[in-house]
Amino acid sequence: NGQLYIVATPIGNLDDISQRAIQTLGKVAWVAAEDTRHSGKLLSHLGLSARMLALHDHNEKQRASALLQKLQAGEDVALISDAGTPLISDPGYSLVRLCRDAGIKIVPIPGPCALIAALCCSGLPTDKFHFIGFLPAKSGQRQQVLQAIPAGVGTLICYETARRILDTLDDLVAVYGPERELALAKELTKTFEHFAFGTAADIKAWLTEDPARCQGEMVLMIAPSQPVDDEIPAEVQRTLKLLMAELP
Ligand code: SAM
């Protein structure tokens, strides 16, 4: 059998491609890509020419079986998406599941992922986080999704579009109140990379100050409601309890 490589590609800055990614894309028999034209540009930038096959949300199931046949015939396949890590709000799940069930070896070639890059520079807690992908397009559904997320899951992370960000900020206020600390990561690794921090009102003010700021790619992060108890060491918690008991 061939091997299936899950290859991360840049989320903006083309230098963010790993040596292993270049080697892998250069040696596989097939590169399965979300958009072959878009990924063709990356490959030619890397000086590579590969046989490509389109694998997107609408044809994934059917393409996955075609790719499985190639893998079973001994050909190696690399899966890439338009940007970042495949399967993270991107196609690939059906293919990986099918290949796993068929006993194909699946090899990760890790690299850029917008949610991780955003979280690590946000200054919000990183010990626990919950990724929600894209929120629904309609405000009512967005609020429902947000309301259904249980407390204690840590920092919330979602992918957001420039078109919806202002409405989503309003929904966050409706669900979590106006005080909740947020962080917005924009255009990561690109020329206009920017982090905005503060309440929904602060971020809205920054975004609307200049129309150009309401464009581009963004990751929205929501701080946990308050420091959870277990962030305070057990011994300190015990002492606090004793002291509290002595208070009038
Ligand atoms: N697979 C990708 C990854 O690993 O991050 C995500 C693909 S998803 C279809 C695209 C969304 O990811 C964008 O709408 C945006 O929310 C986020 N994103 C991708 N690149 C980004 C960047 N350079 N800066 C900020 N957000 C980015």
Helix residue percentage: 25-40%
Task: Output the helix-strand order.
Answer: EHEHEHEHEHEHEHEEHEH
- Report strand %: 15-25%
* Terminal CA distance: 73 Å
Ligands bound to this protein structure: S-adenosylmethionine
Low-confidence runs of at least 5 consecutive residues: none
Shape: globular
Summarize the main sheet: 5 strands, parallel
The average pLDDT score comes to 94
Describe this structure in words.
It contains nine helices and ten strands. Helix 6 packs across helix 7. The protein has 248 residues and is of the alpha/beta class. It starts with a strand and ends with a helix. The model has no long low-confidence stretch (mean pLDDT 94). Bound molecules: S-adenosylmethionine (SAM). S-adenosylmethionine (SAM) binds next to helix 5, strand 7, strand 8 and strand 10. It comes from Rheinheimera marina. Belongs to the methyltransferase superfamily. RsmI family. Keywords: Cytoplasm, Methyltransferase, rRNA processing, S-adenosyl-L-methionine, Transferase.
Task: Summarize this entry quickly.
It is built from nine helices and ten strands. The protein is an alpha/beta fold. The N and C termini lie far apart (73 Å).
Which terms would index this structure?
9 helices; five-stranded parallel beta sheet; binds S-adenosylmethionine; globular
